[in-house]
Every structure is written in structure tokens, then in C-alpha cells.
Amino acid sequence: LGNLFIDGLIERGKEFENSGNQLRTLSYYAASHQLADSVKNNEKIGLTYNLAEQMTFAIASSYLDISKRSALKNNPAMASIYLNEAGNIIAQSSLISNSPAWLGEYETWLFRNIEEQVLKSIAEKNFRLSMDYLKEIQSKCLSSERYPCPENFQEWMRTTREGLYLQLLDKALDLVRREEVSEAETVYHQALEMRFAGGYRIAKDVKETKLEMTCRQMNFDEFCEEATAQFNRGDHISALYYYNKADNLRKDGISDPD
Fold first, then answer.
1. In this predicted structure, what is the pLDDT of residue 2?
2. pLDDT at 255 exceeding the cut of 70
């Protein structure tokens, strides 16, 4: 009876394998091995172990294929996700005690490639892409004792943040010229966050000062307009509130609207 159940699980697993459903295949092969082990069927223990082990490695290899394709398409986040999936499917297996050498070799290749892409992206001034790569390096530095964090990581990050900061300032100024003031202010604040966050020493650019005054002037004009509108509606308390906000900006050197 035990043989019948074991063979049934194996056959069901082969059906899923033929249909390309690797995860369901693994679940049946693993179940057949558990049953063979529990009934001490030595003839089936080795067979079912090999089936489950081979399918586990096949799934991990599939994940690494997706990871590599993602890496070659400049998608480091997806590459890292599928590397982790490959590692997890092996680590969670009760049948496999040691991680295969090819998994570690691929991990080494992937992060060497990521480090190379950081340098390439910085050289091409593609700072958004270099930040994507740096985030994966940073995450790996924090999560893996085996991975040696690159010696120049902090300099790469500072250069990338500075590049993004300057590009955001340029984008904000372009939005101002197109009179898209609300969007310009949003991008301006993104630039500030890029300069201040992370603890990197990034010098304030003159464009930031220009945008700061532009945004303050826009806010001042809006406060004056809203104060006047509230006053004309007879809501003197709200009008005073907006006049006070405008007055605070005037003290910082903002001029009255024409």
C-alpha cells in the first residue's frame, strides 16, 4: 500500500513537471520522499530524494535565469529579488544541507556586475540608474556577512546623490520657466531631500538659492491673494492669518506683488 501511494505521488508530480509547474512538482516529489522515509521504504527513499533535490535545483536555476536577464536589462532590484528566491528555495528545503557552489558563484558575478554598472552609470551621468544599483549594494552590505562592501561605496553614493540633486534643480528651473509652479516646488523639495538626506556633504548650489527665492515668492503671492479674497468675503480672521503668513515671508526679503 505504501508503494502505491508513493508511486501515485511521483506520477502526479511528473504530470505537473510535464506541464511546466515546477513548484507543484516539487511539492509532490517532497511529499513522496517524506512518505517513503516514514514507512522506511529504502528502495524509494533514494529515488524520491533525487527527484526532490533535482527539482529544487531546477527551480533555483530558473530563478537565476530570470535574475541574470534582469541584470542584463539594467534592473538590479529584480535581479536581486530572484537571486534571493533561488537562495530561499534551497535554504527552505529539508533535503539539502549545503548550498551548491554555482549559487555562490552566480551571486559573486551579479554583485561584481552591479559594481561595474555603478561606475558606468556615473560616468554616463545616469544617476538614477546608479542609485538603483547602489541601493542593492547597500542592502547587500547590511544583510550579508559574506559580501565585502566596496571600499568606494560612500564616494559612489555621494557622487550619485550630488548628481541627482543638480539634475533635480535643473528640472525644477525648467518647470518654473514653463510656469508649472506647483510641480516645480515639488521637484525643488526632492532636490533638497537629495542634498540633506544620508549624511553626505553636498555643497549648496546657486540654483538652489534661486529656486528657494522663487518658491518663497510664489508662496508669498498666494498668501496675499488668499488674504485679500478672505477679507473681501468678510472673513477677517482668516484674512489676518494669511496676511501674517505673507508678512513672515516679507521679513525674509520677499517683495510685495505688483
1. 64
2. no
d(CA 184, CA 190): 10
Task: Give residue 49's Cα distance to chain centre.
Answer: 37
Length of the chain: 258
C-alpha cell at 132: 538603483
Residue 122 in contact with residue 130, Cβ under 8 Å? yes
Contact call for residues 77 and 132 (beta carbons, < 8 A): yes
pLDDT at 236: 83
Q: Is the dihedral of CA 120, 147, 143, 193 positive or negative?
A: negative
Strands annotated E in the chain: none
Mean pLDDT across the chain: 89
Residue (of 187, 122, 133, 196) closest to 160 by Cα position: 122
Q: How far apart are CA 195 and CA 178, in angstroms?
A: 24
